[in-house]
Amino acid sequence: MSHSKDSDELVFFVNGKKVIERNADPEVNLLFYLRKVIQLTGAKYGCGGGGCGACTVMISRYDPISKKISHFSVAACLVPICSLHGAAVTTVEGIGSTKTRIHPVQERIAKGHGTQCGFCTPGMVMSIYALLRNHPEPSLQQLTETFGGNLCRCTGYRPIVESVKSFIPSSSCFQMNGNGKCCLDEEKNEPEKKTSVDTKLYEKKEFQPLDPTQELIFPPELMRMAEDPQKRVLMFCGERTTWIAPGTLKDLLELKMKYPSAPLIIGNTSLGLDMKFKEVSYPILISPARVLELHTVTDTKEGLTLGAGLSLTQVKDILTDVVSRLPEERTQMYRALLKHLRTLAGQQIRNMASLGGHIISRLPTSDLNPILGVGNCILNVASVEGAQQIPLDDRFLARLPDASLKADQVLISVFMPLSGKWEFVSAFRQAPRQQNALAVVNAGMRVVFKEDTSTITDFSILYGGMGATTVSAKRSCQQLIGRCWDEEMLTEACRMVLEEISLPASAPGGMVEYRRTLTISFLFKFYLDVWKQLKMRDPRGYPDISKKLLHVLEDFPLTIPQGIQSFKGIDPQQPLQDPVGRPIMHQSGIKHATGEAVFCDDVSVLAEELFLAVVTSSRPHARMISLDASEALASPGVVDVITAQDIPSDNGREEESLFAQDEVICVGHIICAVAADSYAHAKQASKKVKIVYEDVEPLIVTVQDALLHESFIGPEKKLEQGNVQSAFQCVDQILEGEVHFGGQEHFYMETQSVRVVPKAEDKEMDIYVSSQDAAFTQEMVARTLGIPKNRINCHVKRVGGAFGGKASKPGLLASVAAVAAQKTGCPIRFILERGDDMLVTGGRHPLLGKYKIGFMNDGKIKAADIQFYINGGCTPDDSELVIEYALLKLENAYKIPNLRVRGRVCKTNLPSNTAFRGFGFPQGAFVTETWVSAVAAKCHLPPEKVRELNMYKTIDRTIHKQEFDPENLIKCWETCMENSSYYSRKKAVEEFNQQSFWKKRGIAIIPMKFSVGFPRTFYNQAAALVHVYTDGSVLVAHGGVELGQGINTKMMQVASRELKIPMSYIHLDEMNTVTVPNTVATGGSTGADVNGRAVQNACQTLMKRLEPIVSQNPNGTWEDWVNEAFTQSISLSATGYFRGYKADMDWEKGEGDIYPYFVFGAACSEVEIDCLTGAHKNIRTDIVMDGSFSINPAVDIGQIEGAFVQGLGLYTLEELKYSPEGVLYTRGPNQYKIPSVTDIPEEFHVSLLAPTQNPKAIYSSKGLGEAGIFLGSSVFFAIADAVAAARKERGLPPIWAMNSPVTAELIRMACSTSGF
């Protein structure tokens, strides 16, 4: 960091140790400082914008007035280090480690199987830790709110939640079962079990108790600093920005007079985002956090006056206290504010964001400003010239100059009046997700009646999300004054509001009709809410409202999952030492929870190491006329700019280049890379590279564009069985249609990461990469540099989530870094920021499915003609394999005697789409389930009956002529029916729907036949290396990569069983291409299968060598035998190899035995939708999966749950949005919403089917990594069922196919053709 003699010393503590920073830079955030300056890498970079929680740490401060210490979680990526003066920071390293002791939070989350890849775990731990520091026995509501700011892509949240629930006293639980028993008492809630079924994945009795007395004390020195009466101005001067922190209000006002354009900064949750993502910079920042007047609270009979510097969490706590003490009629506005404060952003952001900052920023989607605006709040502002009061009204929120603060004025406090007896205030919002999501539209509404009447005397409505600012329906409200609160008034109000609050068709953000509809939906809800309250006050004075309508006033509750996980118990005869079949904790679980697990970017920076930032195309299809990097090269810290001309050999593969040459073919196409001494310098310089383009036609973005221009990759693929044409002549009905399936972002928590370290000799290089396929990375780097592969060693210790997105892409990115390393001679660190990662790397293939189905009136499907078109993007990548998989797996669980399927990959000007968990199956099988559901609707039959009727029943052959036995498919279906109480719950759903007009429930059960593996034999090979040392310890290496799926844990279990030694004897280090060469990608659900066979083979070789020694000394110990083998010169090292499953496909004949085995499953889901807003609540899901003999039930159930939740996101939440020119809008968690903890079904049950033999896989197990993602479609079809109920009641025709994802917008617009 830069040095200035004018800077003050910044003093704070980290994990009990004093930090004195003499060169504090205001542009440096706490996350960077922790990771790169003081080398505490537990907090992780996940998004850089406070949206994921991976960087969560705890900050503690001492209040000299109250004499209390406050602890709160924050997003370290948004905390400027200059704001930390006098604070104590606690990171995950500071609460416990394997070197000292682990904290109960760390222990429980690890032993409760709450970690998979582990990248999000430190953030989860610190959120929970901060909660427990404030509330050692938290309530479930507090826990729910705490989790809102933390995302996890692997686990599905259930095990995390469950492990932390152990801190909650059962008496405080509000999630009770039907018998009034606590959800924590699982054993008491369980259905009657067969003796062989187990439901305990861990033993709670082993958990160490939480002892608050053992926590770090707050540093006394900081208390003395806080109580120091000298409130002098602090100043910290950085490279581009100066931070000034006044200690008194007088100093603050003088500074604002001197620097009127300098923004005030407290929480940095708005300003920080602008500075990072919009590249806004300020020469002066003023921090008023130490000014006491900004933190005062005044409570009078008229209302509350809250200091502008109070955090939103503090505001929430104050309002909660007041609401608990005063009558409901007096706290109408406070209750409305509290409703939104529970879901606004995440807990970390609420802890940081200030009330004043939230108000002054006047964001168009602000959740609080519309409520404050209708509530007659007053802003108390001050300047050197004196104090002033400004109404917080529609004019202020519209940013009118005469209603806003002057440049030299500061917001000191906000007056929030209490409500009058005949005053009613409500708040509404609809967002893509319940928690931590900006609203699509929100509203604050207030009405005042003449005493003891329903005559309106005052009315105000403010909407957020309907324009560039918060907008008012002022004209409409004024015209309604004097009217009675009745249906006639409502009808008129809706008409007037729609006229007044208009949105042009091209409005930013799109969803115009949906947003307009929400404005009326909220008004209708307000009407009902007020009427209900009037009725309660005077039961005789107002007509009754039908209960069918009142259901809609009940907001979906914020809930977190509970459930039962059942699996086959261990055979009592199995030796205790044998770990196979036991729910063993993830091998790195404790290290994940303590932050000691090292990921690619956690390794310390080497001497002369450079950082890489890429320059990408801003045009989708254009010729590059010129590239001028001179200004970038002249920028501070820049060492070089790397382009295609610097590549020694191949510029990538024939079909996909590393750097664009002459032409760019998508927005995000890498053009060059800047190498500099810091990432900040590299990023700043990358903006200075000047590129002149000339657009090229045609521009192809969508599948429809590609069809129009006949733009394809590879030939058409086709499979056919039976006589399709003849069958269509013999059916009762024919259905034709099409359905669109949206893409999906991988959103692995660890972005693409690579470090390249060139060696001094023989052109050798070490590549440290976050990759599923180290050998491919090795091959790409060798080809790019023109050197043999034996000079390139790729290391993969662990990967922070992948899901297919780190199979091919890391090879290209590593090659870019390798070229930079070779040119500069320096180590290179290349870590993509989240926005760049999402822009550059592509994701799941969007699909257009067209179908023609012939069926009988009884629901029997006789013929199907299907066409698939997937959006491959600009290069082939894995797209041709994906379309093959989609066709091969399309039939799912159904026997269609006459079936023709064809598929094409469309070439478009989008970044190349690539492998993604499920690999074509989630798309193809979804289309199948769509037309099966449509057939049921056409025949007026229950969908489950049509599914059963068409399901495989006996040993048969798939469309590609592979024989299989569907016995376990039927068992999964029947067991799921039984476990879910399907028919009784379906009846309950129908009864609910009869009693509710605006809310509807739906239920669906979906079967699954998933084929495991790759379509080429050589893709299924694997190798391992096992060393036994003379002390008896064992080192295992294999060709699989630990992605979070627990492969290393399973390999240790295999080695333990085969060598008959405890797992504690066994260690796995990193995977690298020197130890195990020529590996294949870890994916396709086969990683544990094939590598397990290789490890087993190596261990059996060793045991065979030891046999003579063991037979001579049968009572000896393992150490005795090993040492004797050494003295007899018997090798204690062995390679293991598995040739792979035979897998061949003849596309000319349309047949082949491709897959070693099938995984069967079924899922039943129930949902409830709000027909006015499109919101939905996942009530319950039951999954039954055929896992045969699970090697590790905890790992396998975790994979099922995580995949299901990823599928839930795929089918209902996750929507990629592009401009017409192919520019990706959704480039981070603020725009792209993966499921959060409250999106998970409230009840979430997973059962492994009673095991049967599977001779193809090791120990008769099955690979379960991918299959569960498709079962997320059960939620989609439950929503479709609810929508169908709504349409039927309204007399609307059925919708035969709904597109995926079924977002709130789609649900709302499908429920009705108009506002009501």
From TrEMBL:
Q: Identify the InterPro entries for this entry.
A: 2Fe-2S-bd (IPR002888), 2Fe-2S-bd_dom_sf (IPR036884), 2Fe-2S_ferredoxin-like_sf (IPR036010), 2Fe-2S_ferredoxin-type (IPR001041), 2Fe2S_fd_BS (IPR006058), Ald_Oxase/Xan_DH_a/b (IPR000674), Ald_Oxase/Xan_DH_a/b_sf (IPR036856), Ald_Oxase/xanthine_DH-like (IPR016208)
Subunit arrangement?
Homodimer.
Q: What class of enzyme is it?
A: oxidoreductase
The UniProt catalytic activity note for this protein reads: an aldehyde + O2 + H2O = a carboxylate + H2O2 + H(+)
List the EC numbers from the record: 1.2.3.1
Keywords noted in UniProt: 2Fe-2S, Cytoplasm, FAD, Flavoprotein, Iron, Iron-sulfur, Metal-binding, Molybdenum, Oxidoreductase
In the UniProt record, what gene is named as encoding this protein? LOC101823809
Q: What is this protein called?
A: aldehyde oxidase
Looking up PROSITE patterns in the UniProt record yields: 2FE2S_FER_1, 2FE2S_FER_2, FAD_PCMH
Q: Which Gene3D superfamilies match?
A: 3.10.20.30, 3.30.465.10, [2Fe-2S]-binding domain, Aldehyde oxidase/xanthine dehydrogenase, a/b hammerhead, Aldehyde oxidase/xanthine dehydrogenase, molybdopterin binding domain, CO dehydrogenase flavoprotein, C-terminal domain, Uridine Diphospho-n-acetylenolpyruvylglucosamine Reductase, domain 2
Ranges for domain 2Fe-2S ferredoxin-type: 8-95
The Swiss-Prot or TrEMBL record lists the needed cofactor(s) as: [2Fe-2S] cluster; Mo-molybdopterin; FAD
Localization:
Cytoplasm
Top-level taxon of origin: Eukaryota
Q: Where is the signal peptide?
A: none
Q: Which residues form the FAD-binding PCMH-type domain?
A: 236-421
Q: State if S-adenosyl-L-methionine is listed as a keyword.
A: no
Question: Which SUPFAM superfamilies does the record cross-reference, listed alphabetically?
Answer: 2Fe-2S ferredoxin-like, CO dehydrogenase flavoprotein C-terminal domain-like, CO dehydrogenase ISP C-domain like, CO dehydrogenase molybdoprotein N-domain-like, FAD-binding/transporter-associated domain-like, Molybdenum cofactor-binding domain
UniProt lists the family membership as follows: Belongs to the xanthine dehydrogenase family.
